[in-house]
Fold each of these.
Amino acid sequence: MNVRKTRLVLRLEKRDNSVGMGFVSRGFRGKRRDDAAPGRLPPGQYLTNDYPVLSAGPTPRLDLDKWTFSITGEIDSPKSWTWKEFTALPTEMVTKDIHCVTKWSKFDTGWKGVSLDLLFKDVETAAEHTTQVSYGGYTTNLPLEDLMDGKAWIVYEYDGAPLHPEHGGPARMLVPHLYFWKSAKWIREIRLEKEDHPGFWETNGYHNYGDPWREQRYWGD
Amino acid sequence: MAGAALLGRLTWQAAELAELMRETPRVSSLFFNVPEWPGHLAGQHIDVRLTAEDGYQTERSYSIASPPEARLVELTVERLDDGEVSPYLVGELKVGDKVELRGPIGLHFVWRMGDQQPMLLIAGGSGIVPLMAMLRHRALGMHKPPARLLFSSRTYADIIYREELDRLVAMNDGLTVFHTLTREKPDGWKGFTRRLDAAMVKEVAWPKEETPAAFVCGPTPFVEAAADLLVAAGYDPLWVKTERFGPTGTVGG
């Protein structure tokens, strides 16, 4: 009886080790655990009140007179808006939590912009994939369905003021249900595509889809 | 080696702190023995995960300071007093303790042996860390491109890796290091004593005709300023790779 009990305990301990449970960082208590409401922070994220910047290169400075936004690719007649036309479109005020792959999350960020549902209202396409193309040449790929049904916007105001170039101004994507690199800064074009083409970060080690709730940070996650 | 390893899933593994070295009053280098390290490229970063006794976990990213050739994985961490992770890594962690790591991460902000463009490295404070991995890697090469480092620190005592940088320069292998101090002007100091500006970039940076490869790393305002100055000096934005960190001390952000 006793022997059996001991064996059972050993087996349980072994199983714990095999899934990597039980690691404790000696002397670490943590400071920020009370910052966030339970269930509101995706795994591995921490809350910040700052607004850090993630970019791969210099910040483009764009001339609004020359700015356009276009929908191209698998579409009968490509659509394009000038800055004047774009900012005349009906807007929405959106308040969302955002999650950066570099671990910070920021709650209740406030944006003003145009819903992708509105921009795609008359678009008929056989494409299931999209590539967002930025001024400066950076790209990120997304399934088309992740841009539809109230999930994505092109925003040009943050916190009541014009969006700063560092943060993607004059206009950027906002796709808050995915890691924030999936929300392209300095958006120039959404290309509709029949096949999936991994974008800039996606070919540089980062996950192809990027769901923060499944912690899809890197290749293989 | 590292490229192939990156294709698999990056798994967490416990790594033991083998050595601890004070670099400046606020900055220490931590040398980890990572049993199954797949190798890395100069400029990549790594994720660190801490777990409290009650199961609470938090993660941060840190640049790797060691070159791919090193046996131990070195992280050089600045202690931010209001931070959650850096005061633990620099202050609490002792040799023999373990943390969980996974990596390496990132294929954009990297320099590979064999890249032949002249290197221009611009660092603000602990932004030197991934650039040091590049310089250490370069120092071990056979055919190395010329390199210039412009390194902005607050004070003389805040210059991370100061003696090692002097030693690298003394190898006379085409590396030039320019220091600037933004909050101090020590007696006899021969470097710059001001914030980065156009005149400094003109004096230090390779002319655009050389089609250099530029790497800029530091706090966001520093990186913004440096990258803008390089573009103003005629650099193609695609030559300028940046890595920014916010006040939270993490990579990118």
Amino acid sequence: MSSHSAELPTSENPGDATVGDRISSIVLSRGTPLWWFAGFGLSFLLVMLLLASVGYLFARGIGIWGNNIPVGWGFAIVNFVWWVGIGHAGTLISAVLLLCRQHWRTSINRFAEAMTLFAVACAGLFPLIHLGRPHYFYFMIPYPATTGMWPQFRSPLMWDFFAIGTYALVSLLFWYVGLIPDLASMRDRSRKRFVQVVYGFFAMGWRGSARHWRRYEQAYLLLGGLATPLVVSVHSVVSLDFAVGIIPGWHTTVFPPYFVAGAVFSGFAMVLTLAIPLRSLFRLRDYVTDDHLDNMAKVMLTAGLIVAYGYVMEIFMAWYSGDEFEWAMILNRMFGEYRAWYAALWICNIFVPQLLWFRAVRRSPAVLFVLALVINVGMWLERFIIVIVSLHHDFLPSSWGSFTPTFWDWATFAGTIGLFLALLFLFVRLLPMISIFEMQEQLDREANHA
Amino acid sequence: MTNEPMAPREGNELVALARRLHGHRGRRYWRSLEELADSPQFHDYLQREFPGQAASLLGDVSRRRFLQLMAASLALAGLNGCRRQPAESIVPYVRQPEPLVPGEPRYYATAMPHDGAAMGLLVESHMARPTKVEGNPQHPASPATGASNSSGQGDSTAATGGGRVSEFGASNTFAQAAVLALYDPDRSQAIRRGRRISTWDAFLTDLQPRLQGRDGRGLRILTETVTSPTLAAQLQALTEKHPRAKWVPFDPVNHSHAREGARLAFGRPLQAIYDFRRADIVLSLDDDFLTSGSGALRHARQFTERRRVAAADVNRPEMNRLYAVETTPTPTGMKADHRLALDPTAVVQLAIAVAARLGMNVPEPSDSSAGALDGVPPSWLDALVDDLQNYRLSGGEGGALVVAGRWQPPIVHALAHAINEQLGSVGVTVRYTQAAEAQPVDQFAALAQLVEEMRDGDVEMLVMLGGNPVFNAPADLKFTEALEKVPCRVHLSSEYDETSNRCHWHLPRAHLFESWSDARAEDGTVSIIQPLIEPLYDGRGDHEAVASLLGEANKTSKEIVEAHWRNQHQGDEFNAWWRRTLHDGVMTESARPAENTELDFGAIREALDSWRSSHDGAGDDASMQIVFRPDPTIWDGRFANNGWLQELPKPLSKLTWDNAALLSPNTAERLGLENEQVVLVRHADAEVELPAWILPGQPDNVVTVHLGYGRTHAGRIATGAGSNVYPLRTSQSPWFAAGVEVRKTPKRRALACTQHHHLMEGRRLVVGGTLEQLRASPSHPEFMEVLHGEPEESFYPPHEYDGYKWGMAIDLSACVGCNGCVVACQAENNIPVVGKEEVARGREMHWIRVDQYFSGERDNPTAEFQPLPCMHCELAPCEPVCPVAATSHSSEGLNEMTYNRCVGTRYCANNCPYKVRRFNYLDYSSDIQQHPSLHLLQNPDVTVRSRGVMEKCTYCVQRISAARIAAEKQDRSIRDGEVVTACQAACPTRAIEFGDLNDPNSRVTRLKGEHNPLDYALLGELNTRPRTTYSAALRNPNPKL
Amino acid sequence: MPQIFHPSMNTLSRVSIFGAGFVLAAAVAVAYAIARSPYVTESGVVREQPVPFSHRHHAGEIGIDCRYCHTNVETSSSAGMPPTKTCMNCHAELWKDSPLLAPVRESFESDTPIAWTRVHDLPDFAYFNHSIHLHKGIGCATCHGRVDDMPLMWREATLQMQWCLDCHRNPRPHLRPRDKLFDMDWTPEDTPEFDAAKQMIDYHVRSNTDCSTCHR
């Protein structure tokens, strides 16, 4: 802990410091804690690794990965789906919970949204770099080309293109609009001219007049309304990339809901993974309270149960349909080359989360943190099973093969994790990670109730 | 350019340049190349055509330039999308040769000597560069495919100079790959004296004193098996000019045993020519007559025609029946109706037993007084003998036939001849002629004697025309040692190989397509070998080499060959006859007549007794036996540097780039071995390490090894691939040996296999039944049930076809798994070679593959072969998923792949249930950039694919377009059989049929739907409605078994 | 609290926010225009040639038939470039000392080909066949323009895929009688009896936009 933290009024003795002071001081207080440099440095190295592997990828081609025929999609798509899934929590928390007047969201929505943005940024990277000829990605954009050609609008990848695009855009707006009043207060609190100018520029001349607030409330609610369907649409569309295919293990109607649930599952897991360390590092336990963790855990449990239902349904339908290929697919998952991965998947996503039934577990940050990590891994495994294990044994035994990830597969994956963390570190350092004004409202509201 | 798919430009420049290079020879050639190199045109030309290679062609001087070019091309690669086109040049002729029409291919008839006989070829030439090999339909060894029996059009227009050709002959993998060998950058390009580059003139001056007035004392000529009448005559003349000179033919894979067998039976080294057209019952004694050797194409055609149940007469189906005994699994055995895996000695026992059962005066095998042979069920023998005796299944004109594999000892061949005589097959299913080769001797004995002389120092000058004895002579002869004793060693060879490396003189040999010669087919028919291109390097043909020994160094091979035939030819005016012979690719009435034979049974008996005395009780010692075979794809090693053949999956094992020790599952269990585990094979005081490969159908306690791998002085492709097993092979037992030790080692060697799973998992992939079942209900055989359900609905509106509607039908009964289609496709469609590592990663690029599934019991399974091109589905799963519409449905039903539109999402490949799509994971065609000569190889009508694009079978759309344009220019529509796909053209058994499904009379239509009860769609239940459908595989097992 | 920004910021920010939209639109428009401009397509751009050959003089003024030099145009995919021999047929006699023709003579004597600069250069993955287009009734001028009026050769059409497709989607307006294929200044008015619709049927001309028509 850096010495500056002493200046921070801690949760133990709130003193008379306002919410605004405390949250903004994290950013504005001179100097930066050592652990921040350590963490940022590490993630920055990983970003360098990402650059290196992408550079090599562009120089040599997709061949540096483990992909082959039959396994045409490898880690790239696995990671893509995983990251998009993670992104979901942000939108859900900010939009859906906003509309549902779930006020406990206040203390987590800000960095949940930030996390969404960064996750989507990582996700968006993969569809691009996994192309055989990435420099022609623009063929997918519908524009009046000199070739007189238009994209194939029947293709799920096409739908994906728009789904992800919209999602990224709306999430960004939502996050930014939410930031404006806080940017203004940061501007006002900061003493340095330069800092004032920067925050001031982005605050867009926010003065907090009644008119501002009225417009603001409308806009924010509107965006919330816009964002809500995205929670469902984005991952439904992503799931269609698979459901539209005819490969056993892809061609399933349960995919859209099952993917959305999975997304929320992993999203909240990630929020917890971040919230728990942050709140202790910044001494924000009385803003991000154990109740918050409890609530998130409950959401996670629910989502987890839906996912479990999905898994069971998959197996049941394969058997019930009497389709030999479907059934062979299930048997291959259970007893085939990748059975260990499949077992791990069940442990991480179905068995371990059942601990969440216990209040004690839900309220002990440490356990919850570990649990969240396990679920993150589990959800990645799920995508691995769906993408790779379905492909490596499909219809003709003659063309069966297997997939072995190469160094570059892992490097690229680790790289995006680095990118994600690096962005996050910058965020907590430069912006109020908890919505100041919403917190204020929240406290007032509670005061009035009392 | 590098990132764009590119089609090779038409070769105007090349022709122009080539013409400058040609006409120069010897020293002057080199000088003129340097001159050229300095000329600005040449600089421009190189950099235009082969950016990146320019440097290395120009020599080390300009390595900087090379780097610049690489940098440039890399830079270009980046800013591709928004690039302005670089300026290109057109370089026309100065004086254009008359018949040549730029942009139109021409075909020339020639021939390829292989395995002691010629195969007839038609070679497609674009702007004077040969790009594709087809069979010559008029040649006896390459039965006509394609349009041959459709409305009799385009007969002899096929050969020389004809424009588009739709009548081809079958061709095998070696013939197809010959064109790659022509452009092989590793070919020897210079004469060498020791290690140093020298010249022909220097060679000739060195030669003279060695020949002067010593009437050939110590002069020995070692050739490959010679079938060229001209060369034979030259060598004859040589031995007359130098009486004490000797000529020895040797090929490591030869017909000596067969010839000796004939010598035993008839007193003459005759050759048996089989005629399967009338063979109803065939017994194969370890002979892979369907896919191995120069007669294979004809055999395969005749054999399958005899068992094809044409859709027409499905109501009274007739099939021949094949019994096969094998010492190692081959496609022939797998196609057999009854197959036994026996160890080598048991095969002889069986032959004797059969002879005895047929009432011939041979002593019953002693150890099997009860008639029971080890490994042969009595019922099997009974059924076989019974069938052989009353073969006449199809009334009257049929016959029985016993064939013996060349690996079998002479005695088995003799017995086979005797049995055929006994069954009255001679003149019906087999006839005897003079051997195709000029000198039908026991080549192992002949070589042994030569080595003897060499060791004794009687040989002062050894001239080797081709061949590679240092690598492939039997180990016990110690050829290399003896060679060191020869004071002057000369080797004419297309590559600087193991033998060249130990010679004083290495002379580059002109490629088949670069020089004149002639060759006899199995039946004696003569073909003239005419060049399609001036020698790319400083190569000469065998004729010129011999001529220089005859002191006629100034004669060109053209003069020599033409002169020879001018003398031979009598009758009508020579030039016309000569032109016709060249045009047709065959010499009329040159086939050899059948010889009258009388069997000397006494001799056979004596031989039998001596064999018995030497082999009694030899069979039952516990030690393992070894079987040597030429490699299915690189033969005796001569094709080892050919990427197409190296990457070709070997039948049954499906291995590429490597040889292995093939073991039966039982033996592997006994030795505790699994695939890829290295074993130590010890025999003839030599030992070789090989990875083990478990092959169902391999006889127990027999290890099979394939020759030709483990080259040490060959090109970049051959060197280091596989293990050399020649050290285990002796001249006494070149094909089999007992007392072999196979020891397990802890090492492993990774093998690149293209099909890991050989069971159908209960899925209806290869559908098949027996003749019995078909006879029971011809219109709805029970094994076809469940396959014809109601067609399901589609989400999208149906496609309409007002013009053509292309489709393909593949007859699984006919496919013998010879791989001809795979290489033909690779040659036609510029398919790259990816190398062992990439194959091991599952990234081979073949557009058509031959899937193979084992069935039956593990120790003696049967295999079905299933050629798998793109199915061109009516409701193709790949089409709707491509985000950029790079793969689309054409108005003629083709499932098109547009490379230049592809961004490489690979979604289409994932969604293809047949997994026929191939992806350029790396820059697989880079070697075309690096090697100008490979640039000449590319088919200009097919785009060369760049890194990151998807590709797949197109039904040879370039051929369809050519046919359509040709037809429309005559204001007519394409005739049935006018479009012949590359795979179809190569297929010896006409297993592949292609045509217009909108034409009710086309042959392909007649093979589909209601016309053919055996027709079915692979994975039809997915409702992809494939345009490529299959005819179920029929077998004709003996009901008594 | 002190002002951080000058009041003018208000206007400035509004302008820039709304202006952004227009700037973006403009950028798109410019890109669109450039992609179709002669700078990229090189249509109408005269190419440097080793010999300043004038089609106007040879094809126009003298009236030499296209096929005299481009001999394969009716039989083959490539129209064919004349060998030096063809030039020398006349220029062995005419202008045989002209310095402009020196490269031609040099080529003929030294037996080295002349390297002309390609004017109509399709991408390597696009396959075009002259003979079939002629056969269906597409004249030289339809794609190459009034070559007989080009002192030095340039490319008339953009050769962009869109341009090919325009005709492949609807060939009818581009057809002409087979006897007018090499007629440079033919217009439908010249032969009023000509019926394109009939020709479509007679010559089996149809809209043909299969990818494999040009890409193989």
